[in-house]
Amino acid sequence: MSKRADGLYWTGFLLVLALLIVAPLVLPEFWQRFVTEILIWGLLAMSSDILIGYTGMVSFGHSAFFGLGIYGAATALLSVRPPNLWLAFAYGLIASAAVALFVAYFSTRLRDIYFAITTLIFSQIFYVIIFTWTAVTGGENGLTFSRPALAIPGLFSLPFTSYTLHWFVLAVVTVSYLTLRRITQSPFGMVLQSIRENEARTRAIGYAVERYKIVAVMLSGLFAGLAGVLYAIQNRFAAPDFVYFLVSGETIIFNVMGGIGTLVGPIAGAAFYLLLREAFSRFLTEYYLIPVGIIFIAMIIFMPQGLLGFMRRRLNQ
Amino acid sequence: MELVTEVLHAIPYDQILIQTLNGIVAGMILALVASGLTLIFGIMDVVNFAHGELFMLGAYVGVVIIAATGNFWLALIVATVVVAALGAALQITTLRPLLGRDPLTTILATFGLSLVLQNYALWQFGPVARKIQEPFTGSFSIFYLQYPWYRVLIAVLSAAIIGGFWLFLKYGTYGIWIRATTQDRVMAQAMGIPVPWVHTAVFAIGAGMAAASGVLFAPLVGVTHAMGLDWVLKAFIVVVVGGMGNLGGSIAASIFISLIESYASIWLDPAQAVIVSFVVLILTLLFRPTGLFVPTPK
Amino acid sequence: MTPADGNAAPLVQVENIDTYYGKSHILHGVSLDVGRGEVVGLLGRNGVGKSTTLKTIMGLVDPKRGNVLYEGRNVTRLPPHRLARIGVAYVPEDRRIFRLLTVMENLRTGLDRHGVTDARKQELLAKVFAYFPVLAERRNQAGGTLSGGEQQMLAIARAMMLEPKIILLDEPTEGLMPRMISQIHEIIESLHREGVAILLVEQNVPLTLAASQRVYIMEKGTVRHHCPSSELKVNDAVIHQYLGV
Questions:
Q1: Residues of chain B with C-beta less than 8 angstroms from the C-beta of A121
Q2: A88-113 tens-digit pLDDT
Q3: Domains of chain C (ranges plus CATH)?
Q4: B187, C89, C102, C111 — which has fewest CB within 10 A?
């Protein structure tokens, strides 16, 4: 980016960041939690953007990564007294990484629609396993657990308040965003985009497309798992619903609405969707998915680049 | 010798027999649903996520008509026609504008449609399952077991519908149009075939077939807004295992998968029996990605 | 340059067409016309845009600028299936017959039209089988099992089923043996005698000059030369410049 555009970008970024930091102080409780949730879903959507927006692989598997992040964290938090934050991260990330590896293998063998359908089936496989393996996962009822404290054993222990939790989530999401941004703007990221544009040509030039795809899936899976861990910490329960493929579908909706290939777009998409859902639930009906679904379809037809799609070129230089 | 007799005794023959019949019945319904899906994919490269919802809406229209007239057969016909018309309308409004775009946009659009249709059904009919009565009761005896006639009818009717459609494809004028468009959309246009309308017609036919399956299947389960979800997943598996766009393959795959699932449900919990079809899919994708029932490309 | 039959309005008029494939600018202001019943040749080396011109006329590709007129009517944005129904037939470069349909079914895609009586259908079939007896023999065979030459015949026969006023013929002799090439020449002559116009894209210069009344020569996406075939036969310089190897 040119120096001027660069400056503009960072100003915008800091402005948004400042707003988000201040949010819990000025918003009523409900909206404050809402903003925190937007951040978490936004992280999930960003992770999905790596695959859809940057590598060109539509995956319905994010519910698996996300869900396993939640259950991994849940398991950690239930197994140790007092519940340990870092263990939760460890278990959650390992669980989602394992799934990601599994999916990554298939990503190199299948293309396009076959890959999309297969990832969908995977989400469902995990859903069925979690749903029926009641002994370990609590089955239909899920698991409940308590929130860990921000602690370094032996040094200090700070239980989370809704404010500090928000700032913690914000910190994690911001760091994730900056990391992902760095990655997508690196030579590695450029290769991913080249794969999206024309896989055959990228391979012909000499890149080991399979390896790049595997790394992309792993990255995507890890950050999705991270979102899952954050979700577990915030909400203190895990349920099979989060592994159902509809979550993947909603994630993709965030991506499309916000603008794929922009990283920030998906966060905006998540915000937009959740706000629409709130609005329709309050004023119209609990069947908010009818108008929201129609808006989604209309956006695909008339505004395929999404809300922030116009910034895509700028953001990726 | 003792071991052999023990094993032979342990085999639950009556269950296997019943499950074979169940598998074939379920397989035929699945074949009817999957035929529409594979047809739509074959001709216009659209993966119709909303196919399960068309099945579900067919069942609900059936519920409404039966409640009004008490006539199952009328319900079957009306549901097929109404949902076919709905399918045509949906294709014209949401899929035609997406022609020529990245095929993944149609997956997303049909996914959006499935959400809208599902919630619409939930809104109109509520969360409580509706029941349809079978048009006739009564079972026949096979060996020492009873098997309901109605289930046999389902299989026969499904086969008849698929068979009738196959004949139409092979010999009817419009059948030739459909086959030509499936093979080469561009040349079909150059030959004067109104391809956009052929697409609409095929989508409508697929929708109608899904709706008919829904009505036929409804007496066996409760009709709810979510009933389409399982079917669409299974139908996808069938389409992939059978070979995308391969009608005969889908039918074979439908029966194959349904049989395996039925047998599995003898020993497994029904919720877990579902995994079986998933495993079949994964194995197929690993070893024979073009489909199990497709001749290996030379 | 007046069309051969002296009738004022040409059957097909291409006016200043600019066609793009994505970002590639393929046709730059291409203009040409074909009169009723005329055989017009379109020559040029590989890649100059001859096929694209045919595709633009047929509506398979939309031009960014310019018009295509048919019988005086602007058909630039008309979809291909409508053009086929009003008398424009297209025989593409790679034949593109429907491989999984039988010969008969291939013919039926053009034959089964609104307003054609059964009697007329039988007449058309009889005519085409008279032209191409081998198709009659193979009528129930799948298109994909035919040889290259037979597929070319089928592609032309299929176009004839539309009872077209003009046939857009793209490189019909490509990959064919000399015996078949002269057969193609005969077919073009027969069609001409029947009053069907033909826009013939070809690499085979002698055939084109023998079969057509006028020729256009394209280079780099535009028409560079235009003259009666008789003139070109003796103009080696031009042939060498635009078509020489």
A1: 233, 236-237, 278, 281-282
A2: 888 889 999 998 998 888 777 777 77
A3: 12-93+157-243 (3.40.50.300)
A4: C102
* Residue spans of alpha helices (H) in C115-177: 118-131, 133-137, 148-160
Q: SS3 for B243?
A: coil
Within an 8 Å CB–CB cutoff, is residue C110 touching chain B?
yes
Considering all CA atoms of chain C, what is the largest pairwise distance in Å, rounded to the nearest integer?
53
Q: 3-class SS at C35? A: coil
Sign of CA dihedral C127, C128, C132, C138: negative
Provide the chain C residues 194-233 that lie in CB contact (below 8 A) with chain B.
none
B174-225 pLDDT, tens digit each: 999 999 999 999 999 999 999 999 999 999 999 999 999 999 999 888 888 8
Category of C2 on φ-ψ map: left (φ > 0), alpha (ψ -120 to 50) or beta = beta
Residue C58 above 80 pLDDT? yes
Measured between CA atoms, the residue of chain B closest to residue A111 is B289
For the cut 80, the answer to whether the pLDDT of residue C219 exceeds it is: yes
The model's pLDDT over A171-209, given as tens digits with 9 standing for 90+, comes to: 999 999 999 989 988 899 888 888 888 888 888 888 888
In Å, what is the CA distance from A130 to each residue of A64, A125, A135?
Answer: 10, 9, 10
List the single residue in A109, A114, A300 with the smallest CB-CB distance to B108: A300
Q: What is the rounded average pLDDT of the residues A301-307?
A: 84
Nearest CA in chain B to C81: B192
Domain residue spans of chain B: 23-225
Chain B's closest residue to C162, CA to CA, is B191
| pLDDT above 70 (res A240) | yes
Does the distance separating the beta carbons of B189 and C110 come in below 8 Å?
no
Mutate to test the interface with B, among C81, C83, C95, C167 (most CBs of B within 10 A): C81
**CB C53 within 8 Å of CB C90:** no
Q: Fill in the amino acid letter for A217.
A: V
List the single residue in A with minimal CA-CA distance to B289: A110
Structure tokens at A154: 């032996």
* pTM of the predicted structure, to 2 decimals: 0.87
Contact C90 B190 (CB under 8 A): yes
The residue to which tokens 């119709």 are assigned: B48
Average pLDDT, chain A: 84
ipTM of the complex as predicted:
0.87
* Alpha-carbon torsion (C20, C24, C26, C30), positive or negative: positive
CATH topology of domain A3-315: ABC transporter involved in vitamin B12 uptake, BtuC (1.10.3470)
What's the token pair of residue B81?
């026609």
The answer to whether B231 and B77 have CB atoms below 8 angstroms apart is no
DSSP code, position C195: T
